[in-house]
Amino acid sequence: MEMGGRTGSGKSDGKPQVKREGGGADGKRQSGWQAPDRREVKSTMKIGNRDFEPEYKPYIMGILNMTPDSFSDGGKWETKEKALKHVEEMIAEGMDLLDIGGESTRPGYTLLSEEEEIRRVVPVIEAVKAEFDIPVSLDTYKATVAEAGLRAGADLVNDIWGLRYERESPGAMARVIAKSGAACCLMHNRRHMDYGDFRKDVTADLTESLRIAKAAGIRDDKIILDPGVGFGKSYEQNLEVLNHLEEWHSLGYPLLLGSSRKSVVGRTLALPVAERLEGTLVTTVFAVLKGYAFVRVHEVKENLRAIRMTRAILGAEK
Asked: Pick the catalytic residue: 20, 50, 296, 308?
């Protein structure tokens, strides 16, 4: 069990503690909003009752899919009991925060009703918050689901559409997050891969997500950005994102990389989902080298070891 080192603050309430080993291009600017200078963004962000310091990077976001059809582990944790046991295992391995998802977003996924998604995630969020002292992220792009999850105790909304999915009610997700005071991770995504200058377009899209967030009143110290490996991009574009991860520091917010077991790894190595750990670890090392604050992964222990070794080589591990 790999433990020790950096830990977020907050009361324990007798629950299992999360312990950690010490772990561009400019887009189009929207009128009335400018990206903050990176030096002006608070060095500490609060998620739940924990303080996260992005300079001590990266923290590990463990994945819990409550879905029967997830591309990587669909149906594996379908009962609350199995889910809680897996959460306990990930905490013991060094997870810093947990990401719970109720709808698969694999290529060709079936759209889930809001009611069914709520039914899948809310009981698990409530159970995790009752049993463990761990910040909880809810992986959803639907405002109604986010609202239910936040009421159940979620501390962060991880939105794969960067606040831009619900065209019928623009800004709805941003308003839900702002009203709750929760943190959010805004990921880059596109319905159509109609890019001109690819990396500048990704930056411009993320800038639009930030504009929506700021207009709704989401604070700077509650925002994480994700360049969106595996979403709205070709194989070659996913490799380009991974090769230029530093590009999005220009926006001034902590960055998250979510490349665990993704198709870019599988296609490069010609491997099925269950055999993509080594490829994932390479992307995690890149995240450390490029100054990312968070990595979202399936295998906590192995990724934490890769992070520690990389930081030791860089002279950052204590």
From this structure: 296
